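hiii so my PI (J.) wants the whole complex modelled not just the main chain, which honestly fair. so below is everything: two entries, each one labled with what it is. i double checked the lines twice but i was tired so who knows lol
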Amino acid sequence: MRLPQRQLAVLEAASATDERTIDEMATATGLKPETVVGAAFDLRDEGLLSLAERTVDTLDLTDEGRRYVDGGLPETRLYRAGLALDADESAVSMGEVIGEAGLEGPEVDIALSNFARKGLGSIDSGELRVDPDVDPDADPEAAALAALVEGDDPAADEAVLDQLDSRGLVDRAESVTRSATLTEDGVDALMTGVEATETVSELTPELLASGEWRDVEFSEYNVEADAPTARGGRKHVLRRTADRVKDVLVGMGFQEMEGPHADSDFWINDCLFMPQDHPARTHWDRFALDVDPMDRIPDELIARVEATHRDGWGVDGDGYHSPWSEEFAREVALRGHTTSLSMRYLSGIAGAELEPPQRYFSVEKVYRNDTLDPTHLLEFFQIEGWVMAEDLSVRDLMGTFEEFYRQFGITDIRFKPHYNPYTEPSFELFGEHPETGEEIEIGNSGVFREEVTGPLGVDCDVMAWGLALERLAMLTTGAEDIRDLHGTLADIDFLRNAEVSY
Amino acid sequence: MPVVDIDTDELRGLTGRTDTTDAEFEEDLFGLGLEFEGETDDGLLQFEFAPDRLDRLSVEGVARSLRYHYGDDRGVYVPETNDPEWTIEVDESVPDERPYVTGAVVRGADLDEGALESLIQLQEKLHATMGRGREKGAIGIHDLAMVKGAPLQEGSEPSITYRGVDPDGVSFVPLDANDELTPTEVLAEHDTGRTYADLVEGLDRHPAIYDELGLFSFPPVINGKRTEVTTGSRELLVELTGTDQWTIDRMCNIICYALSARGGTVEKVEVNYADGATHPSEYGAELVRPNFDTDEKAVKHDRIETLLGVDFEPEEVVDCFERAGLEASYTLDEDVTYEVEIPPYRVDVLHPLDLVDDVGRAYGFDNLEPRYPDVGTVGGRHERSRLEDAVRTSLVGLGFEDLLNFHMTSGTENYDRMRVEPGSSALGGGEPVEITEPYSEEYTQLRTWALPSLVMLLERNTHNAYPQDVAEVGFVAERDDAGDTNVAERRHVAGAVARRDASYEAAKGRLQAVCDDFGTDLETPRTEHPSFIDGRTATVVVDGDEVGVIGELHPAVLVEHDLEVPVAAFEFDLDALR
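here's the output for the full assembly
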């Protein structure tokens, strides 16, 4: 027969005739008591050992109990002090007796209540008398404490022990003592001889295949020790935020748009009814590209957009008093906003002509010549979304955006009337920072002007909004410098350690 | 966004609200869309606002808006004007680049220190906004007492002349100077002249305004010292020149309204464009200015209700219009339509929709109850967006850290440091799409491939632990004269394995896994690429198409990027996995 080393040791330490306790066997084998317990249970399961359990009540003195063994119970001290002051003959002021007894702090209350309970005397109007018939040396509580400190059986009534327990002078507990005896099988096994099994450090394919795993013992590990952290790859933290936004918008019924990053000013600005001399269209703000102008724009659309810029849209519409040149409209630049995609989709050039109702979105990169700082980059992601339907109202706009931001824990949205050349009415959206509670700008929104939708051939309402994804990411991840996240300055450790958002 | 500086004592005077505190004004102005920004060194309060209501660029206009807001004023206000005595003659010598002029005379204005400063501020803010940095419209205000009108003939009205002059042939004493300077000298030597020099430099003739005594204004650059306005000035001549008649007329209106609020009486002037001069075709050659005619637009009741989502009684709408400084009348027909009268200082009303917005503001957008629109649509992701995402998931599963790099880069990073020649056939060697006027040497073009971004990131992270396996699915672009936008935009998949034992095999094993994930067939025939070691470089061929490159990065590229570990990498076109 083969047994693991530790089971064999325990088996050999057991006796067929004498019960051996776990502690005894631990001493005999040099194993830890918990290892012996484990081995003993395994041996019992094998039928080699029988285990007996005994439950013992234990009584231990508390620190307070120990103090009273030496100094006497407070009530007894009070009684003796009363005797010394002749309180057995006439009443003595309580303060005097307490002083004589040397009682202080909580001991005073303890002494007084137990004095009364045990009938050692009487207290009336602040004066104390002691009963001369009491024998202060025959107190059963004191006797039980004295016995306990000697390690003797207190031999006291259950009531006295309960009293000591409730006074907090003793701790009562139960302890289980296990002891083992060899069974007949155990004796037989030892007689025929038991060998210790091998201890292995690794479970190998060979051990598994041969079945030898049954006969080996695995060496123990320090399971609390640190292990080197495993590093897998992770999706970029900003991509995760984008994914979350996409999830929310798809859930709200929005279809995703895509389209060119480099586009004509026509799609980027002219369709949006941005006058060509608008300050945002100067070379300071845009990234113009050195490629040829864009030829393929439907002529009719160009004509309608130009006419709208010059003369306005509709009977009572007025145009801008700004220059408009087709040449400028055809110039190619990096888009400053993804509203160029919205224009392409609304015009029908990106796919099919759209009939209301529609919802569309994109979370894509835009390019603006801004000053680089912790919250601004030259390239950032813009969340863009719009809803096309008959008779949309400002209230629908408010309701849609409240729902969107609620998904990110941003509530109490405030709509501040604003001005954009391409929407009317327009609103800046403000919300409460989920952590700091500060009021912060979280987007820009509005209903597209008829000067925008009309030339594109859309004759119902379209409400739209935009927001920088980085702004939302900083709000929801707590990142403080956007440059840690985005671009070749990124710190790989920052990306590895950034908390996962979901 | 424009900022207006407000002296709240002036505001109390102009609104008649003497007991209103600064804090109360701040709150009321927020309601009008003017947001408190801070204080100037002189203790004026600064308010920022969206650039639609340019009539609020001075304390006078802000006070007018507040009076409407408080209900102290209602409807449209148009100041009384007197008939013209003065004429502005426009000579045919006026430069074509700045053909238009307008103006007004204002008498009896009470200009104390504060009012004068406010006037100067208004002028500067109008220059910055509507005037597009004085190019589109520039304002000159003069002490009329110092202008000697030259009657065109005996007994006729006094006149001044707008003409073009030889920039070296005349001279005058400009503001903030003591000597006579020619226009050329002003542009070269005078502070203000240097600031605005680019607006007139290169013109054969420079714009100038003359009275009988000579040149007294050099628009759009500077006025002459002789006619300088001071706190003693009671009679003012306002002149504006520019490239658009409507724009300068409206700027003139805003100035006249402000001066009228200071007690001035506006007197019209005649503007006569000479036969040979360019005149504004829509208004003719003989104008009387300022033009305080109101505009009218028709707004449908139904449109107001649907856009704001509120049911209104017509009286409520009329009330809102009046509190917005407009006037409205309607007839009670089947569908109610309002005829709305718009005052001549408004420059932002292009469409009836703008008037609906005014109703909304007067009603209070805060009073609208949000509702989720009852419109059903089906959502979904774009196919390419799903593909990019699936590839990222594969790469991340292979242990790559997903990166997000800039699309703009420099030729140095994109080509030189990778040893690639622009215009070569190697991957990454495409013709660059360059930024016409780059602001920084670091961002001069779009990246033609993604690997340089990955290597730059490794360069920045040499202090961090290895292995560093990084990947990106991202945008690249190159010139393509046959394309729609003349820019070919693509998505590339790039991966780099940076570690002590990085090898061709390590990169290929991962590339193979990605190709397997998408059910595509990978072959890697030998090739050469300047960024990689010869003999350890292959073309990435997916399903028979050459779509990228794979190999061990050349030691010269590694050393160039301060890398002390080998790097094996691949890059190929995302579409290959479709």
